Amino acid sequence: MKKGYVQVYTGNGKGKTTASLGLAIRAAGAGLNVYIVQFLKQGDYSEIKALSKFENITVKQFGLGKFVKGNPSDEDIFAGQEGLSLIRELIKEGKHDLIIIEEGNVAVMCNLFGEEELIKIIDSKPDELELVITGRGATPAIIERADLVTEMKEIKHYYSQGVMARVGIEK
Ligand code: ATP
Ligand code: MG
Question: Among 136, 170, 171, which residue has the most ligand 1 atoms within 8 Å of its CB, making it the best to mutate?
Fold first, then answer.
C-alpha cells in the first residue's frame, strides 16, 4: 500500500469487531498481509477458526479470557505487555499491510496499559501500514490521532433482553 491510515471502530453498538474482521477478509482478498492482535480475549472464538483458513491472515490472542474487573491482575498486565511487544515487533519487521489491534481501546479502559502506549504505536506507524484499533471507549487522544473514526451507536441491542453472546453471531 502506498499510504496507510489509522482507523478506529468504537461505540457501544454491535459491529466493531465484525467490521475489523470484514476489513481483514477484504484486505486478504486483495493479497495484503494481515495481522490481528486481540487483547483480553482467549479461546475458541469462531472467527479464529474461520480465519485460520486464510494464509495471509494471522490472529494472536493476548488475554486471559476473563472479564477484567477493577484493577487488572499481574497476569492481565503481562499479557497486555506481550501483545504490545508483538505489535512493535511487527511494525519493525514491516511485513504486514494491515494490523488490527482488536479491543485495544478496552485494554486501555481496563488499565492493561496506558493510552500513551497506543499513541506511541500510532506515532511510529510507517506510512504504508494501515492500523485499525477497535473497542468501545476510545480516548479523545486516540480519536484525535486517527484518520477515520466510526462510532457504532447502539439504537437497540438484544443484550438488554438478557441475550448473551451467541456462538456464530457474537463469538
Ligand atoms: P461484534 O463482535 O458482534 O462486532 P462488538 O465488537 O461491537 O460486536 P463488543 O463491544 O466487543 O462488541 O462486545 C462484546 C460482547 O459484549 C457482545 O457480544 C455482547 O454479548 C456484550 N454486550 C453487548 N452490549 C453490551 C452492553 N451494553 N453492556 C455489556 N455487554 C454488552
Ligand atoms: Mg468487540
Answer: 170
